[in-house]
């Protein structure tokens, strides 16, 4: 054990670290792998993305995850089995990827594993007084560390909850460290299954930073497509949505949910925003017979509306720029709707800031792992009631 601690200390004191960031989101489409070269820490952090790809999950593995994903009642045995299995599958993907890149596993200092979210239960959702906020990500990191022989940092969200947060979104830490600018106010908008944004003031004062989920990103559109087109996972290039028209009655029913009346910051997930949510809105608005294209056009506009409404409600500054990441950045109709709802605001991809928009979340977890190992104490000693100034993640040694 002493040897392992010495090894970790040696990594912490290197001028730069090679960290493999892993992200498997609520879309369940695959594992994002971001091989990063990271130097320094905190606001001085510098990241160079050496390689990025998404390894798609095979159908059987995805089906196994779906059997325990976002369900209040699941097989406890299946949950236990999948905790190990996800770790083993991710290990195999890592080993294969490094071999393909002609890299030895010993060339990588750390793995940062987000794991697979199975259930997210902030108190605002479960409404049980005796319980606090909770979330569960599985994919055991000891299996990853042992099978790759690389120190693995994982389970980042639990410390955030322990310190008074909701476990999400965690983007504030990486966004603040990597992308703050004294030259402009910035909004980093990530549109994955769920949409969230981080507001970074040009003052660089962390107390002025805002980070929150805002509601559905791609999840409702994807759920509706998958229900009606079993061989499709999403509406590629918004092709179906572009054929339809927004239905005002359905839009009103979608917006009429207590989540949108909750105060910010807040978190949510597919436990709330799922196909049943759409069906309930269709029934409530008496729009069960409208076309698939009209539903998709409405869901697309609904996502844009909830994002822009949250930005308008939270951001008082008139001058800011928006930088988008996540799968939603590839949806041309969604971006068009957001731009039309924020007509005087510059909207660009995070690519212009040097961050691959598809790799951003995996990169951010590499940054969190870097902080776990060598974050400087001055940042973590400052008081902050909105966003706990803490390092996050559990350390798994290979041996």
In short:
By secondary structure, the protein is an alpha/beta fold. The protein has two domains: 2-170 and 359-396, 2-Layer Sandwich (Nucleotidyltransferase, domain 5); 173-353, Nucleotidyltransferase, domain 5. It has helices spanning 2-12, 59-66, 76-100, 123-126, 141-148, 157-162, 171-179, 219-228, 248-255, 275-284, 292-314, 332-341, 360-374, 377-380, and strands at residues 16-24, 30-39, 46-56, 110-121, 134-138, 151-154, 186-191, 194-200, 210-216, 321-325, 346-349, 394-396.
Task: Explain what the structure shows.
With 399 residues, the chain is of the alpha/beta class. The protein folds into two domains: 2-170 and 359-396, ATPase, nucleotide binding domain (Nucleotidyltransferase, domain 5, 2-Layer Sandwich), CATH 3.30.420.40; 173-353, ATPase, nucleotide binding domain (Nucleotidyltransferase, domain 5), CATH 3.30.420.40. 38% of the residues lie in helices and 21% in strands. The chain is built from 14 helices and twelve strands. Strands 1, 2, 3, 4, 5, 6 and 12 form a seven-stranded mixed β-sheet that branches. It has a five-stranded mixed β-sheet with strand order 9-8-7-10-11, with helices on both faces. It is globular.
């Amino acid at each position: 054990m002493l040897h392992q601690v010495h090894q970790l200390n040696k990594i912490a004191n290197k001028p730069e670290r090679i960290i493999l960031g892993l992200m498997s989101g609520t879309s369940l489409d695959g594992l994002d792998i971001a091989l990063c070269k990271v130097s320094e820490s905190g606001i001085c952090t510098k990241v160079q993305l050496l390689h990025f790809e998404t390894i798609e999950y095979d159908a059987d593995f995805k089906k196994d995850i779906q059997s325990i994903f976002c369900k209040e009642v699941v097989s406890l045995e299946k949950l236990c089995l999948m905790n190990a299995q996800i770790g083993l599958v991710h290990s195999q993907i890592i080993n294969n990827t490094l071999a393909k890149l002609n890299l030895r596993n010993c060339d990588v200092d750390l793995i940062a594993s987000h794991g697979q979210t199975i259930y997210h239960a902030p108190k605002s959702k479960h409404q049980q007084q005796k319980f606090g906020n909770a979330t569960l990500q599985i994919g055991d990191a000891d299996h990853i560390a042992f099978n790759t022989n690389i120190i693995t940092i994982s389970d980042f969200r639990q410390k955030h909850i322990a310190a008074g947060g909701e476990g999400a979104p965690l983007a504030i830490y990486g966004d603040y460290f990597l992308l703050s600018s004294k030259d402009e106010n910035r909004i980093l908008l990530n549109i994955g299954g769920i949409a969230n944004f981080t507001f970074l003031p040009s003052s660089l004062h962390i107390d002025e930073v805002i980070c929150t989920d805002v509601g559905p990103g791609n999840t409702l559109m994807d759920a509706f497509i998958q229900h009606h087109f079993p061989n499709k996972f999403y509406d590629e290039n918004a092709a179906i949505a572009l054929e339809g028209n927004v239905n005002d009655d359905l839009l009103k029913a979608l917006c009429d949910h207590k989540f949108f009346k909750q105060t910010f910051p807040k978190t949510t997930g597919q436990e709330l925003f799922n196909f049943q949510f759409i069906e309930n809105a269709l029934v409530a608005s008496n729009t069960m017979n409208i076309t698939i294209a009209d539903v998709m056009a409405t869901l697309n506009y609904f996502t844009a509306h909830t994002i822009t409404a949250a930005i308008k409600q939270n951001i008082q500054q008139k001058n800011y720029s928006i930088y988008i990441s996540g799968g939603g950045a590839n949806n041309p109709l969604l971006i068009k709707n957001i731009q039309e709802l924020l007509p005087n605001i510059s909207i660009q991809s995070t690519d212009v800031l040097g961050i691959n928009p598809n790799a951003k979340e995996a990169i951010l977890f590499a940054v969190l792992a870097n902080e776990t190992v060598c974050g400087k104490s001055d940042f973590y000693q400052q008081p902050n009631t909105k966003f706990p100034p803490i390092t996050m993640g559990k350390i798994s040694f290979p041996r």
